[in-house]
Amino acid sequence: MQIVILPTADDVAEYGATLFIRQLHKNPHSVLGLATGSTPLALYRLLIIACQQKTVSFAKAKTFNLDEYLGLAADHPQSYRYFMQQHLFNAIDILPSNTAVPDGSAADPVAACKQYEQQIVDAGGIDLQLLGLGRNGHIGFNEPSSGLRSRTRIKTLTPATIADNARFFEQGEYQPHLSITMGIGTILDAGKVVLLATGTNKAKAVKAMIEGPLTAACPASALQLHQQAIVVLDEAAAAELTDIEFYRHIERENQALLKRLTRQ
Ligand code: F6R
Q1: What values do phi and psi take at 153, rounded to 5?
Q2: Phi and psi for 132 in degrees, rounded to 5?
Q3: Pocket of ligand 1, candidates 32, 34, 66, 181: which has the most ligand atoms within 8 Å of its Cβ, to mutate?
Q4: 3-state secondary structure string, 13-38?
Q5: Domains in the chain, please, with CATH?
Q6: DSSP type of residue 190
Q7: Pairing between strand 178-181 and 67-69?
Q8: Model pTM?
């Protein structure tokens, strides 16, 4: 795991956006894995600006979102498809047919999960996957106890996640308790994974993910198995890490090495 600790949440967004822009420069046909929630919003704003300034193009890219509420149609304002249209897709040059979000209103959701896995395979696999982190250590909607090799499937949300996400729903509005989510195995198959976490309320989960044991009790700890996982944190989210000075030291060494290599 590469652990990058930056002063503010804005720095985290900028670092994440740069990774996506570099990926698209390297390969305009990249397959990108995307997330919803509060954390990626600033990153998406930066990607929109970059696209409008023609610094980057999504015209040849494909995207797959991590998850969707089961029972919400694409045009429901709380659906993750709607979120992605509002916060990214409508403002960039991506082809609508190249964006995929699990179908929360599929007549046969079990078959839809299988098809989603197949769609990812048919696209050649995900090159760069963006992740947020739940306070309980979830990634996508893989809640604690999720199989570490799980694939896209229907998952029940924990009461903690339902409570955390209640802020997006009106009082009395129907809030689904089920989701379709890429599995942990699906996420681990991505070529590169970048997880962003900001704020004090993520500090415990960050510590469990990086310094805790590999365990289904903290699904994000599965990233310890990934060969190219980058965790980008602000100071608040990194605050509970025991070996924080060591992680800063490694990053300084990495940066120095990079400088030397680019000078040669
Ligand atoms: C959403 C997703 C979730 C969120 C996580 C953090 O697509 O995959 O795992 O990333 O719940 O949410 P925020 O960013 O709202 O704190």
Answers
A1: -165, 180
A2: -105, -175
A3: 66
A4: HHHHHHHHHHHHHHCCCCEEEECCCC
A5: 2-263 (3.40.50.1360)
A6: S
A7: antiparallel
A8: 0.96
Structure tokens at 221: 């700890």
Task: Using the mean position of ligand 1's atoms as its centre, give its distance from the Cα of residue 160 in Å.
Answer: 13
What are the DSSP E strand ranges found in 15-114? 31-34, 62-65, 67-69, 99-100
Span 69-119, pLDDT tens digits:
999 999 999 999 999 999 999 999 999 999 999 999 999 999 999 999 999
Q: Which amino acid is at 221?
A: S
Contacts of 83 (CB under 8 A, 6+ apart): 36
User: Is the CB of residue 109 below 6 angstroms from any atom belonging to ligand 1?
Assistant: no
Concatenate the DSSP letters of all residues of 51-105 into one string: HHTTS---TT-EEEESEEETT--TTSTTSHHHHHHHHTGGGS---GGGEE---TT
